[in-house]
Amino acid sequence: MNNDIKKVLFSEQDIEEGILKLASKLNEDYKDKNPLFVGLLKGVIPFIGDLTKKIECFCEIDYIRVRSYEGKTPSGTLNLSGYVPDVKGKDVIIVDDILDTGNTTNKIKKLFINAGAKSVKICVLLNKPEGRLVEIEPDYYCFDTPNEFVVGYGLDFNQKYRNLPYIGVLKEEVYER
Ligand code: 5GP
Ligand code: MG
């Protein structure tokens, strides 16, 4: 599997340090609140796990299932399947692996605002500013990443590579298999 990786963009240590910094900002901003973290499945799993372990206030953690990619091509439509948590009156933090076009997060943010959330913030591990198609910025993020398709640490290509402990770019030949 590691042989499929062309280059590593963020090492395990980079990610650990980035998350520590991010958590300390959240701990400051939410010290008198009880936020609800809502992770977007499935890519968010390693990130939300590592992040919330460093959160010091009482908080809730929930998930919604979204799917926006086919292979490495955005499908253009947002598929929300199943249950949506009750966000009424809550300080919601939407957590995702990466903010790319912004379509997914933008739609979910609107959904939560319409459902009566008290506040809605966006927290991602990676920010891909060049990919943006809608006007939305992360309130919290660890790293800017170039406009390349990345895998690892939750991020997949056709459901593979999520278990890599670092984030990297695949060799071209992997897409031709
Ligand atoms: P957005 O709606 O902001 O374009 O995309 C968000 C979702 O697209 C992310 O949750 C992630 O699942 C997927 N995505 C965007 N860029 C990448 C990428 O470079 N690699 C992978 N594996 N998924 C991506
Ligand atoms: Mg995702």
Shape: globular
Helical coverage, percent range: 10-25%
Give the topology string: H per helix, E per strand.
EHEHEEEHEEEEH
What integer value in Å does the Rg equal? 16 Å
Query: How many β strands by DSSP?
Result: 9
Share of residues in strands = 25-35%
Distance between termini?
14 Å
Report on the structure:
This protein has 177 residues and is an alpha/beta fold. Helix content is 24%, strand content 34%. The protein contains 4 helices and 9 strands. The strands form 2 sheets. The chain has a 6-stranded mixed beta sheet, with helices on both faces. Helix 1 (12-29) crosses helix 2 (45-52). The model has no long low-confidence stretch (mean pLDDT 94). Residues 40, 43, 68-69, 74, 96-105, 149-151, 155-157 line the site of guanosine-5'-monophosphate.
What's the quick description here?
The protein is built from 4 helices and 9 strands, in the order E-H-E-H-E-E-E-H-E-E-E-E-H. The chain is α/β, with parallel strands linked by helices and 177 residues long.
